[in-house]
Amino acid sequence: MNSPVPPTEELATRARLLATLHGGAQPLLLPNAWDALSARLVVRAGAAAVATTSSGVAWSLGLPDGDRLGREAAVAVVARVASAVDVPVTADIESGFAADAAGVGETVARVLAAGAVGVNLEDGAYGGPDPLRPVEEAAERLASARAAADAAAVPLFVNARVDVFLRTRGATTALVGETLERGRAYRAAGADGIFVPGVTDPELVRTLADGLDAPLNVLAGPGAPDVATLAAAGAARISVGSGIAQAAYGLAERAAEELLTSGTYRAQAGALDYGDLNSLMEPTDRTP
């Protein structure tokens, strides 16, 4: 767990690998993690990369999701996750943990220094009158993220999250139009991929995939079409966001309620072995 941050050359190699994973015959599948142990479990299950979930991270640190976590705490988790695995790590940095574009660039520099080679950067706004940032403002923040990565000589994979379907209402045609407009503007600003949570209908996925000159990331979970269907519709990246963290916390509550009511322990059946988990957290060493 105390592995050093890889040198720039290794980070650049991992960043290029992450980009390549978006263009394979199968979509990049990301079971999102929120701490070092969940990251190692995800890798042991076969994931080619690790993505963090901002909500899972925030909840584990005692805060709600939605730009409530500070940069220092968020970057510290990224560093722990990145030091725990030997695959590319992409960090959910919400809207950049900063008030302005320059601050987003500072966050990205810190995330790179922590060992991540990708970021999710969303265009949602919290606490203001509008649910989304103006396109120009969001694009400026993405451009700052790209400039920070260029300055660090790491081809960071910038995944621009478009929250039109997630945080606004309206006719589907209008939502598709705004999503495409924003996605194209973000691509021009330096984004590598476009993430559109709130869309899993295969026809809509196909429309967005065809209309964007970038790998499309969709958010899936219970009730969504399976991976094969989403892949056939054009999804290049499929993540589950807070889904696994929510399932884990759901189990925690059910097990606690069972213990406190019936005095039994059935909900704990199927738990991973203590020794297995403990050994999985033995330190790794990337040094020669």
TrEMBL record:
Domain of life: Bacteria
CDD domains (alphabetical): ICL_PEPM
Molecular function via GO: lyase activity
Signal peptide: none
Keywords on record: Lyase
A Pfam family the protein falls into: PEP_mutase
Protein name as catalogued: 2-Methylisocitrate lyase, PEP mutase family
Organism this protein belongs to: Streptomyces zhaozhouensis
